[in-house]
Design goal:
There is one protein chain. With 529 residues, the chain is mainly alpha-helical. Helices cover 47% and strands 6% of the residues. Strands 1-5 form a two-stranded antiparallel sheet. The protein starts with a helix and ends in a 17-residue tail after the last helix.
């Protein structure tokens, strides 16, 4: 499998995406126009590209809700949703559901069903099962109880109003599916078809499946500690990611946003939507933490520039000015020019107006061909560090933390044009961050590092924050004329209103389990105080 597969499949991918567009609920579960002979590899590639290459819903549920909630990003109009706990546009809270069920879920369920028992697609079938768990895990972590076992089965089982499975049952099936799919993967058989993550490498799919099992095992640590430990230990025993070569990432291409276009990085397309990075700024919670810990990722994640003109970034003055935006603020709040910028010797560098004084997403992460990291080796090493800190496995937690840091420093260097992190920067970081001696302090520090590592992956940052409680975020109480829309951070996304009409009986049953209201303050099953 070669990288140029992105280009050779593009036409087929776009055609299938158009065919997948639907209006009625029954259409979400059937695809009467799809060819029964369609190569499942085309569908696999489509799903992988859409997960991080489809701008519009990423703009809403991730950049507008999840990332602002965890105080990575703010400033843009739509970040009021997550940064201020407000509902400015309800459809944004539904966007993940209303896009991924008729698109990713329909396609991946179809791949799983059509490749079942087909020898030439044996490994594609197993990889599709792992990818299906990955997609559903993000949905259930964001919404709670969701259609799972019957979702996307309209064509196969004539279930057009799927019931909402309990999250506890969904997770139990995740572990079964991951264990079996990993065991069934066979390197002696054909490669995974349409694989844009690992380009057909079966061993990497095994490590991804086990690493996913470890992530989900940690997710349930508060609600079922014994099962959490069992799943984490089994995942480690099975073999998890071993280096940055194992990262599950999408290699995007230099394509601007367009209808049906999924080859460019969708988040970068948002940042490139205007010459103001669409108003996005790094929040002070993140900037200050990275400054205090002398973390070199700060200047790769964000930058301070003297404007942007037609996509070209102005003078880079990040060396002199690194300011984060107040949590919950819009980029126009707390208005005042920074003024004259001088170097350490008092030499004048530039005059910095208010509009560009806060760090924005760097030009590196904003490149259209920037990769998107679904699951990193750094994340894996942080879980191993926590497993040691909790006494679940033997080993040295500090060594795993160091491995995680070096891995994260390495993969941020994969952003186009990003300068490699130097040995001097690495030494300064480790000197400034001695590993804590006490287990609870280790767990806090490890999960703060997860938060840093998850930059631009708001969904995972939000989920890990809810399961761990770290970092300690600043509660939004108001800024200038903006006030909070809820007394505390919302703990889940809202079910779409159309569900109350098109799937009324199952919707009402699911809502009944969370107190009778579609309440965003209700915690999902694993999110225990």
């Amino acid at each position: 499998m070669k990288v140029h597969y992105l280009f050779t499949l593009s036409v087929l991918i776009l055609i299938f995406a158009v065919q997948s567009c639907t209006d009625g609920f029954q259409d979400l579960n059937t695809n009467p126009h799809a060819s029964p002979d369609l190569d499942p590899g085309v569908q696999m590639a489509t799903v992988m590209l859409d997960l991080s290459g489809s701008r519009e819903e990423l703009w809403r549920y991730d950049l507008g809700i999840a990332s602002p909630k965890v105080q990575h990003l703010g400033g843009s109009w739509w970040t009021q949703h997550g940064g201020q706990y407000r509902i400015v546009e309800r459809s944004h809270w539904y966007s993940m559901w209303e896009v991924q069920y008729p698109r990713e879920i329909k396609n991946i369920v179809d791949v799983v069903e059509r490749t079942r028992g087909v020898e030439e697609h044996h490994n594609t079938h197993q990889a599709a099962r792992i990818l299906k768990v990955y997609i559903f895990s993000r949905l259930t972590d964001m919404y709670g109880d969701i259609p799972y076992s019957a979702a996307g089965k309209g064509f196969y089982e004539q279930v057009f109003q799927p019931w909402y499975d309990r999250q506890e049952d969904i997770y139990a099936d995740f572990f079964v599916e991951l264990e079996d799919a990993v065991a069934q993967l066979d390197p002696t058989k054909s490669d995974v078809s349409g694989d844009l993550f690992f380009f057909g490498d079966v061993e990497k799919w095994k490590r991804f499946g086990n690493s996913m099992r470890m992530r989900l095992g940690f997710r349930i640590i508060k609600v079922d500690p014994a099962e959490s430990q069992r799943q984490v230990a089994a995942a480690i025993q099975g073999g998890v990611m071993q280096s940055n070569d194992d990262i599950a990432m999408m290699h995007h291409s230099n394509f601007s946003f367009g209808a049906g276009e999924n080859r460019g990085n969708g988040r970068s397309q948002v940042f490139r939507a205007s010459d103001n990075a669409e108003g996005y700024r790094l929040v002070s919670t993140l900037v200050d933490y990275l400054e205090e810990t002398e973390d070199p990722r700060l200047t790769r994640y964000g930058g301070t520039y003297l404007g942007i003109a037609s996509g070209t970034y102005g003078q880079d003055i990040t060396e002199y000015v690194r300011i984060g935006l107040t949590p919950g603020a819009m980029w126009w709040n707390e208005w005042a020019d920074y003024g004259n910028v001088e170097d350490d010797e008092g030499n004048w560098i530039a005059y910095l107006p208010h509009g560009f004084k806060h760090m924005m997403p760097s030009r590196y992460v904003s490149e259209l061909d920037a990769p998107f990291f679904h699951f990193t080796y750094a994340e894996t090493e942080l879980y191993l560090a926590e497993a040691v800190a909790r006494g679940w496995i033997a080993g040295d937690a500090e060594s795993h933390f160091q491995n995680a840091s070096l891995a994260s420093f390495g993969h941020v260097g994969m952003y186009p044009g990003a300068p490699a992190i130097t040995q001097e920067e690495i030494d300064a970081f480790f000197a400034a961050n001695p590993f804590p001696a006490l287990a609870q302090d280790q767990i806090r520090f490890i999960n703060e590092q997860h938060w840093v590592n998850f930059f631009l992956n708001g969904v995972e940052a939000y989920s890990n924050y809810r399961r761990s409680g770290y970092p300690e975020l600043q509660h939004f109480t108001g800024v200038e004329w903006y006030s909070p829309g809820a007394p505390e951070m919302p703990r889940r996304l809202l079910y779409p209103e159309r569900e109350a009409v098109l799937n009324a009986e199952n919707y009402q049953e699911a809502v009944g389990r969370i107190g009778g209201r579609n309440d965003w303050l209700v915690r999902v099953w694993w999110d225990v105080p």
